[in-house]
């Protein structure tokens, strides 16, 4: 048996999040450590971590490792440059694709490590240009981490959405008008699930029964916020 659930209009805030310039050392509270800046590339795979004190490079799928003191950033065209004898990096505030998926980042990063040049992406993970075609999995609902043994999902396919918040499958139509998402009527199966599955599912349906705002964190996670500040946090599946 199917039950019909009609969700109210869901306003989306910041679907296309602004790409604010990344900061090397954002304001910190007492005792807090500034977040490291991360960059990565493919073919060959490499990562670069920039901390206030060091540049840590891991290249050629882990075969090349270089760790040098951070020389400090020097302004460059639309970005900044770090230069040492063995390792240099140019961070340009220009959207970048990692080349292996449709994930996009705020910066294009070029690295020269022991004379070998590679290019990749860094900084904030940008939100998708559109929800259509994106897939997500739940991280938490109502401030509670989802049960590890209950697979979850939320997919946007064309003008329909579907998913599972821990127990039953749900699906329905949706449309986006500017920054407003309209979903429903949604249909869900009526299975009973043991443990936390039904609890987290009930929390999600309660959240979605009233308007929610949608924002994207710098790491690409999707945050749905409803009445009383209740949230559902989702991670994109690439």
TrEMBL record:
InterPro entries in the record: DUF306_Meta_HslJ (IPR005184), HslJ-like_sf (IPR038670), Hsp_HslJ-like (IPR053147)
Residue ranges of domain DUF306 in the record: 129-232
Pfam families: META
Sorted UniProt keywords: Signal
Record carries keyword Signal: yes
Signal peptide feature range: 1-20
Xref: PANTHER family: DUF306 DOMAIN-CONTAINING PROTEIN (PTHR35535:SF2), HEAT SHOCK PROTEIN HSLJ (PTHR35535)
Identification of the protein by name: DUF306 domain-containing protein
